[in-house]
Every structure is written in C-alpha cells, then in structure tokens.
Amino acid sequence: AASITIGPAAFLLYGNNAEWTQKFQKVVRHAGEESWELPLFPEYSEDLKSNVAHIRNHVGHRDGNSHIAAAFLNYFVDNKYPWLHLDICAYTLYTKWKGAHCPPDAAVGLPTLAMVEFARGLAKK
Prior knowledge:
Layout: H1 2-5, E1 11-15, H2 18-30, E2 35-37, H3 66-77, E3 84-87, H4 89-93, H5 112-123
Parallel strand pairs: 1-2
Antiparallel strand pairs: 1-3
Helix pairs in contact: 2-5
C-alpha cells in the first residue's frame, strides 16, 4: 500500500494511540527518516469479514493490505494496549534511500533506529 500511496520515500504508520504515533513520528524525523500516518477508519474492519472463518487477514486486491493488517491488529488488541503498525516494505526496498546510520554497502535497515529509540523512550517511563 505504501508504494501505491506515497511511494518509497516514507513508510506508512497506523496506530490506536495519538500520543504514541506523535512520539514515534518525532523519533523517526530525529533519525533522519520519514513516515506518514494514515487513519484507521472503522470501515476497514469490513474487509476482515469472511464467509469461511471468523475473520480474514488478506483481501487479495492490488490496493495493498496495510490497512487490513492494521485493522487485523486492532481487532485483537483493540484499545487495551497502545500499538503501532508500520508498513515498511516499499521503504526498505528502496535502496537509494540510506539513513545516516546505514553504511553504503549494508542493508537499508530502516526504520530500525527509530524503533529502537522509541522503545528506549518507553523503557524510561
């Protein structure tokens, strides 16, 4: 979905907690990376409906499934815990984009630095 929505310049971000998404985006920018938050509309849960199972996690159309993955996560976690879903596929495959922490001959590794720094911030609480 990210490659269709915004291309490989940033990864898509979904979450159920505005404080977490804002803090994570701040850490992402500080790491020299880019993200774009998308809303988690209630209508996305409609794509989870199945005729053969309780729910499904893939809809099989070209539009991508990052919103389905986020709705799937939200179905199980709901609002009991804050969560983030990152659609990083197109972002990490774009080899021209290298963060300052990525040597030129290494894997892209994005957004690993941002995730580690965000987790460190949570651990300090």
